[in-house]
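Journal club side-thread
Mid-discussion, someone asked how the predicted structure for our own chain would compare to the paper's figures. Pasting it here so we can look after the session.
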Amino acid sequence: MVESQVMTSGVTDQQILAAMESVPRERFVPDAKRTLAYLGDDLCVKEATSDTPDRFLMDPRVLAKLAELAALTPTDLVLDIGPATGYSTALLAQLADTVVAIECDSDLAERASAILLDLGVDNAAVIEGPLADGNTKQGPFDVIFLNGAVPAVPDGLLEQLKDGGRLVAVVSEGNVGKARIYTRSGPHSAHRNSFDAGIHALPGFDVAKTFTF
């Protein structure tokens, strides 16, 4: 996966490549889908019910490119939003000091916590809660990472960044998703687009919210 997908997509950060080599992606997918764990696409890890949508692990190429865009450092406090079974959380924990993950699905949050514990990831925790609300109690954060496409980034998430903090997300623009980095400077935030990315949407961001920059 790393050599044939991630590196060929232009990711050159050696720490990200090493982290993706070391985190066993197959542990984060249902047993019946473990042979699909390393395919270059979003991977459904929980089928939709009458109350909840399908949930996915992000395409590893997009995940790696977003991580590179975020320019993570070993001292960063990271908020990981919507990790499903926790693969992104485990990966980010290899690159940052501490990772706090927010997952809205109680079953997925429990599964993610159990997998991380089993793998010995001791600098990350998964908390159940609405994804779009983030986590005001444990912020502000150096980096906020969104694990799916959203129609817009809520003001409330940008306000949870430290001065100089970065938020990375795929923002839907019509039928196209744009990977975007937001940077906070004092009370203001600015953004720039980086690359096109077609990934599944995160739940809980259905109503587009505006922001000021």
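Post-session note: The chain has six helices and nine strands.
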